[in-house]
Amino acid sequence: MPIDSIWSYAPELGQVQGRELTGYTVVARDGTIGHVDRQADHHGMRHLVVDTGVWVFGRSLLVPVGVVEAVDAAERRLTVSCTRAEVKEAPRFRTDSETMDPAYLTAVGDYYHRLPPRESATG
């Protein structure tokens, strides 16, 4: 996956473009991560801020939209192509200002880009 595509939804998820995903449950390959607290697109780096609830002691995580592999609007659920541990090990998200910091966003993108590729859950 080219590094710039980590910040864009997969072409087959075209219907997601512009959809409000706040409140959707975020599910990894091995279980629920949390729910989408908000969406952002700063510096062309589209991402979701995910509230983990008690799973990571109330910590929020930043997830590039390029790891979203499926969206179920009826169930208000989206699936990401990584594991819970991989999401948890991403560069730590501390403050909202980081969603506008190109250096932080680049570090997050580099991390997710280096994860091993997986086959899509749909194919």
TrEMBL record:
<dbReference type="GO" id="GO:0030077">
    <property type="term" value="C:plasma membrane light-harvesting complex"/>
</dbReference>
<dbReference type="GO" id="GO:0019684">
    <property type="term" value="P:photosynthesis, light reaction"/>
</dbReference>
<protein>
    <recommendedName>
        <fullName>PRC-barrel domain containing protein</fullName>
    </recommendedName>
</protein>
<dbReference type="InterPro" id="IPR014747">
    <property type="entry name" value="Bac_photo_RC_H_C"/>
</dbReference>
<dbReference type="InterPro" id="IPR011033">
    <property type="entry name" value="PRC_barrel-like_sf"/>
</dbReference>
